[in-house]
């Protein structure tokens, strides 16, 4: 069983929809939770990171972490065609260099 | 340049040959990471360098894989006697410091195909 499991998708939504992307994990030592966006044939870019439990909002993006359930989510409001990409969740222990990634969810937002 | 630079961007090699992949991190970044990404999959940790500390090599899949870093600068990932299952994108990243919540910046990857 993988340490990080990500809803596989793919997801296809109309422009303006609310998108929910989710990951579960098994390692209770994870303290840093990240979401990356990856366009085709590009390296991942960090969208948001959260330390421990709670919510974090940045524009149209909201990240939620529920450590009691070992469950994290990324919500995208008012989705745009430019949001079409693969979204990867990642997690890391405190003072660790290694991040553990989910397999990614490919999102397509149709105009 | 301002970002993480990787070379070659694409490499096709014959099974059994050795390959070297190069990474130039962002200037001043003390931490450097190598990850592997197979088609349609997430990133698989390979190795992590932080300053003068011993590297974390726990992700290297076999003794055919090795990596070096010169000070806080260039890193080279070497794959000896390549196999078809080594075909993947090899991503390098750097950050100002290791651990904690520092943002990690990825390069665009070296796309390796073993035929």
How would you characterize this protein structure?
The complex is a heterodimer of chains A (111) and B (115). With 111 residues, chain A is mostly beta strands. Chain A starts with a strand and ends with a strand. Chain A has strands at 4-6, 11-14, 19-25, 30-38, 45-51, 54-58, 61-66, 71-76, 85-93, 100-101, 105-110. Chain A is 0% helix and 58% strand. Chain B is mostly beta strands. Chain B contains no helices and 10 strands. Chain B is globular and about 35 Å long. The mean pLDDT of chain B is 92. At the A-B interface, strand 5, strand 9 and strand 10 of A face strand 4, strand 5 and strand 9 of B.
Q: Helix and strand layout, with pairings?
A:
The complex is a heterodimer of chains A (111) and B (115).
Chain A: E1 4-6, E2 11-14, E3 19-25, E4 30-38, E5 45-51, E6 54-58, E7 61-66, E8 71-76, E9 85-93, E10 100-101, E11 105-110
Parallel strand pairs in A: 2-11
Antiparallel strand pairs in A: 1-3, 3-8, 4-5, 4-9, 6-7, 7-8, 9-10, 9-11
Chain B: E1 5-7, E2 10-13, E3 19-24, E4 31-37, E5 43-50, E6 65-69, E7 75-79, E8 88-95, E9 105-106, E10 110-114
